[in-house]
């Protein structure tokens, strides 16, 4: 298959990693020699040992030269004026969303913009560029997504680096983020089968990253970073925090703790030790969100319900109890066996000991097996449509009815991704 047949190469090979060493301390460039570049090995077209330190402090002209040299025709190097034109000058009516690092706008490219670029809708991310963190994330995204191609990763079409401006151009994902579908009050509830399909797609994306020749740790798996195609195929976006996995006999990489509270694995938060199993923990949290329709953290709820793990854990091991925390918006239209297995899988994923967590390929297998169950709770009498039973998810232990998702709050980042 194309997506797995294209090996990709480490970009931190020379002298540093993105955040731990040379990023701010060592500004000397460690460019690969021209001869290195010219002897590049097929089948990875022109990519050679591109490193963050190569590019992190270079001028925008130099960065463009380096990226163009390394990615060649695989990525388009856009001008700011071109991106302004296709987004109506980043008008608010073209706004798709806003994250910790800037806004995302819809744009349309036509056949004439660039040779080899077909007419299509695109999403243009405009990074807020005060300080270096924005540039760092931009660069990480270009370097990772520029090389990694898979049907469950969003496709990076190109980038723009002009003086202080940093932009990214992606394929447009017509159904937006999983976060919007699960939690926005006006959205239509996602059916059980679609939730399962999304979980499988996202799991395949992570399995691909973890199984790469040089494993990649995604580090920011959460519902807002799972984007949905028109047929609800899930694709991972946002590789600004991605990190190369440990090499050789190393068991982990040590990094500054970054990510999003509620999703980050506890051992990573407490030690900074990052492994692929940290992503598995975050995946388990998202499974809980798919089951319950609740956010990983929600400060608008009573104290003991604010953290999804603390709240849901006691309910995960029995179908009878699980019923109480299933998303009321599913209205019983979910497979009882499927939900039970998904809940048990989520429980394994959020194990405190990373070694007890399953690996992504086995997660994909487990989830795929759930697609065949048709025992809908509502048809097997396991779901009563009375307000009393269906509202359990929305009723506090004291019996007070809570409005679901009354306040929209974005989960707080572990290390603030917004600058002060
Ligand atoms: N390729 C795309 N196609 C369609 N919509 C997109 C695309 N990329 C992003 N979006 C929309 O823009 C929103 C903002 O994305 P962004 O990645 O900037 O922030 P976030 O994921 O919400 O938060 P964070 O900064 O913590 O990652 C997404 O939630 C999604 O709704
Ligand atoms: Mg994002």
Automatic annotation (TrEMBL):
<keyword id="KW-1003">Cell membrane</keyword>
<dbReference type="InterPro" id="IPR001245">
    <property type="entry name" value="Ser-Thr/Tyr_kinase_cat_dom"/>
</dbReference>
<protein>
    <recommendedName>
        <fullName>non-specific serine/threonine protein kinase</fullName>
        <ecNumber>2.7.11.1</ecNumber>
    </recommendedName>
</protein>
<keyword id="KW-0472">Membrane</keyword>
<feature type="compositionally biased region" description="Polar residues">
    <location>
        <begin position="384"/>
        <end position="393"/>
    </location>
</feature>
<feature type="region of interest" description="Disordered">
    <location>
        <begin position="384"/>
        <end position="420"/>
    </location>
</feature>
<keyword id="KW-0808">Transferase</keyword>
<comment type="function">
    <text>May be involved in plant defense signaling.</text>
</comment>
<dbReference type="InterPro" id="IPR000719">
    <property type="entry name" value="Prot_kinase_dom"/>
</dbReference>
<dbReference type="GO" id="GO:0005524">
    <property type="term" value="F:ATP binding"/>
</dbReference>
<dbReference type="InterPro" id="IPR050823">
    <property type="entry name" value="Plant_Ser_Thr_Prot_Kinase"/>
</dbReference>
<keyword id="KW-0418">Kinase</keyword>
<feature type="binding site">
    <location>
        <position position="125"/>
    </location>
    <ligand>
        <name>ATP</name>
    </ligand>
</feature>
<keyword id="KW-0547">Nucleotide-binding</keyword>
<keyword id="KW-0067">ATP-binding</keyword>
<dbReference type="GO" id="GO:0004674">
    <property type="term" value="F:protein serine/threonine kinase activity"/>
</dbReference>
<keyword id="KW-0723">Serine/threonine-protein kinase</keyword>
<dbReference type="Pfam" id="PF07714">
    <property type="entry name" value="PK_Tyr_Ser-Thr"/>
</dbReference>
<feature type="domain" description="Protein kinase">
    <location>
        <begin position="90"/>
        <end position="370"/>
    </location>
</feature>
<dbReference type="InterPro" id="IPR017441">
    <property type="entry name" value="Protein_kinase_ATP_BS"/>
</dbReference>
<dbReference type="InterPro" id="IPR008271">
    <property type="entry name" value="Ser/Thr_kinase_AS"/>
</dbReference>
<comment type="similarity">
    <text>Belongs to the protein kinase superfamily. Ser/Thr protein kinase family.</text>
</comment>
<dbReference type="InterPro" id="IPR011009">
    <property type="entry name" value="Kinase-like_dom_sf"/>
</dbReference>
<dbReference type="GO" id="GO:0005886">
    <property type="term" value="C:plasma membrane"/>
</dbReference>
